[in-house]
Amino acid sequence: MQPSQIKIYMEQTSSEKVHLLIIGSGPAGYTAAIYSARANVTPVLYQGIQPGGQLTITTEVENYPGYPNGVQGPEMMVDFEKQAVKMGSDVRYGLITKVDFSAPPFKAWVEDEKMLEADSVIVATGASAKWLGLESEARLNGYGVSACAVCDGFFFRGKEVAIVGAGDTACEEALYLSKLCTKVHMIVRKDENSMKASKVMQERVKNTSNIKIYWNSETDEVLGDTKVSGVRIHNNQTGEKIEVPVQGFFVAIGHHPNSDIFKGWLEMDEDGYIRTIPGTSKTNIEGVFACGDVQDKIYRQAITAAGSGCIAALDAERYLSAKGVV
After folding, report:
1. What pLDDT score was predicted for residue 6?
2. What's the CATH number for 131-251?
3. Could you tell me if 264 and 98 are in contact, meaning their C-beta atoms sit under 8 angstroms apart?
4. CB-based burial label for 232 (10 Å; 0-12, 13-18, 19+)
5. Contact 189, 163 (CB under 8 A)
6. DSSP string across 162-176
7. Residue 36 neighbours by CB distance under 10 Å
8. Confidence of residue 13 (pLDDT cuts 50, 70, 90)
9. Given 3.30.460.80, 2.60.60.20, 3.50.50.60, 3.30.300.30, which CATH number is that of 3-128+255-322?
10. What is the dihedral of CA 177, 298, 137, 124, to 10 degrees?
11. How far apart are CA 265 and CA 77, in angstroms?
């Protein structure tokens, strides 16, 4: 092995000790970094595979306080990152691929190579929307295609939209859209008797005059060149295909929390969301905290994620102070 190779190997396999490790970026992670840096905890934040989280694939954001004219999602995340760095956070590119929370100092590995030892850890890895996997869906994401009606429904006031899904979340979002849009076309893959949503939610959707349900139907393609102009729907029973003109296309088939590497260490619900003690960011392991969408399956908003990031930073700072670390 050449000397240069030895140096590279030693760098890759070296370890580092930090007071607070924040895993993941986005509103939760960056807010946790801002608060903990201002408390002189000197946090180290690894941004993960998608620096900035889901907001980096969002266009206009109009419901976050402080931006009276709205802001592009990626621009907002750049602002968050800049503020975190200015406050003294060590923000790094890289993906945490493995952890060992058996005892403090907690261990985490970057890209399965460099090991970090941390007195405390904040998990802010978020959740990823599930998609249909269509080329047109991906191409028009942010240009009429969305996975959050509460976030983006406002942009389609007085227009027709489509929504895909059959659970309670899909029904809630369809009802939300029905208050803003002239028509909501709800695409449900199975028949009426197989709908996953609760009976109460089903009845509410069925009794809303401007929601039209397409049973036994799937999306063939989202139509449009530079923005959504329609959707092609395929009926699984009859084979009939129809094109419905819409300006917005919402996917509500669920989210997947980015919590896989913490399985076996942190308590989770049946869907993989990390459980925290109500009113706190504390997990089942003392010194490990969770915030943002990885532990929030209900609200999933930028502002609630940021708020929980603040809570996690305060919880972590108090934990470290009690241990005499900072």
Report:
1. 39
2. 3.50.50.60
3. no
4. middle
5. no
6. EEE--SHHHHHHHHH
7. 31
8. low
9. 3.50.50.60
10. 140
11. 29
CATH 3.50.50.60 occupies which residues in the chain? 3-128+255-322, 131-251
Predicted local confidence at residue 326, as pLDDT: 83
Q: Which of 301, 289, 246, 232 is nearest to 35 (CA)?
A: 289
Mean pLDDT, residues 236-244: 96
Question: What does the mean pLDDT of the chain come to?
Answer: 92
* pLDDT confidence of residue 51: 78
Instruction: Give me 131's structure tokens.
Output: 């998609």
C-alpha span between 60 and 272 (Å, rounded):
29
The answer to whether the beta carbons of residues 31 and 293 sit under 8 Å apart is: no
**Nearest of 264, 284, 257 to residue 98 by alpha carbon:** 264
Q: Could you give the residue numbers annotated as active site?
A: 148, 151-152
pTM for the model: 0.81
Paired tokens of 199:
């009976």
